[in-house]
Design goal:
The protein is built from five helices and no strands. It is flat. 76% of the residues lie in helices and 0% in strands. It has 138 residues and is mainly α. The chain has a domain of 85 residues.
Amino acid sequence: MYVLYPLLTFCLSILFSIALWLLSEKMANKIVQNDPLPAVSLSAGPFARLAVVLIGLILMATALPNLIGDIYSIIQTPSPLASGVRLDSALIKQRATLMTDALRLLIGGIMVVGFKRIAALASKAAEAIKVPGGSGEE
């Protein structure tokens, strides 16, 4: 029963959020039925980019301290190979949270910087590392 309660509340909050997202236009029309709409047109491009950057910053801000804590706890934990102890679930969970936080940090960084900029930076780095004459080019 203790496991079902958090799962149930999570699922209900997700369903409620989806319903609010899908029904937001109808709810807004009910609230402002007779009000005239202003003649302002805004493109969603800059706002969408700003939203993606803010979500990326939030991901990075929450993942970085967790990642540092995970690295510290792994450093403090003795190696199971050196002590001859079998791998237990706590050690596996510790490694999994490290990988999760690293992935969150990477995804947040991609959201902040942008995938096109990262691809351009990677291609520039590959050109800078390329050895002349090493791959048949001269």
